[in-house]
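[step 3/7] fold_predict: job queued, chain A
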Amino acid sequence: MLCQRKGEKTIFTGIVEEIGTVSKVVHGSTSFTIMIAAKTVLQDVHLGDSIAVNGVCLTVSKFDANSFAADIMPETYMATALKKLRTGSVVNLERAMRADGRFGGHFVSGHVDGTGTIIEKKRSENALYVTIQVPDTCHSFIHDKGSIAIDGTSLTVFGVKGNNITISLIPHTQTATILAEKAVGDPVNIECDMLAKYVFHMLNKTGQSNRGVTMETLVNNGFL
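[step 4/7] structure written:
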């Protein structure tokens, strides 16, 4: 599910540019084509461009002045929450990061690690705290104050308890993304921090995962 164009990996920032609306869904058995009404992400769109839809990197297969289409393959259908989308569903949208653009979130690949489920929502003054149960496969890459992408939105983890994480939405994020409107029981796409995954896998390959991260380990593996 990692988008590629011209042989290069596509990167997003987790800063949602706009909320789009699903205008058409054509279903197969474990695949579908989706049409999404949008404005901002269409300003400089081309065929083959990458657009993250709820954090999933999709490729523009056609477009007009008001919408674009993308194909969802069986792997993406099975591994993400996109299969829950229907006509009228709202979605977070972000174009791939430009080389000359400002970087406001964290590195997001558009490769979803799994789906989580919202289990609690609680307001505290201007903040909305959302607790999400995440898959076992994500547990090793999530830590307190670390970065995570939820439905393509770059967020900070404010609490970890087992496989439950809590994130806090500031007023801007509540209005600029779809997360505040989701209900308890709704699924969300989870992408763990890319750098955390790289470090974890590098340590596993070198047999040092049980020794922890040391300055020597970081230097020897090219991180410093």
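[step 5/7] annotate
The longest strand covers residues 114-124.
The helical segments are 74-79, 171-176, 194-205, 215-220.
exit 0
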